[in-house]
Amino acid sequence: MERYRGTLGRLFTVLSDVGCDQPKVGAARVVAAVVYRRSIVSIATNSLRGDPWQARYGDETHTTHAEILAIKRATAHLRVRKLPGYDLLVCRLCAQVNGDIIGWGLAKPCAGCQRAVDDFELNRVYYTITSGVVGTSTGRVYHLSVD
Q1: Which domains does the chain have, with CATH numbers?
Q2: What Cα–Cα distance (Å) separates residue 78 from each residue in 61, 83, 101, 102, 116?
């Protein structure tokens, strides 16, 4: 995987590194992190285990989305009920048939995960669109520089 410069690039590089070490869950490897002032507060990957939080925000009960787990872990770690001023980063890793990671794919949160973002008052969502390109919940697009 490529390494990216700048704070946002470095954060997404960390998510990519974590995702590369995880098994595929469902159709993809997805990693999410709650971030505050350039620091990762919590990080999670999709899980094959169901969770009551996922049932609250989505129609799936047999898996749990990375976004939901990252938010849950952040609120537990910080002992808070809301996360104003915090951002959520979401990275989807695409792989070839043999399992080799080849880049990023679209990781825009589903409607249920977006409801969780709204309920917990996160500031902004950053998500991968394709390798080296990140979008935000406000409509901005960033093209990251390679190290």
Answers
A1: 6-143 (3.40.140.10)
A2: 26, 9, 33, 35, 17
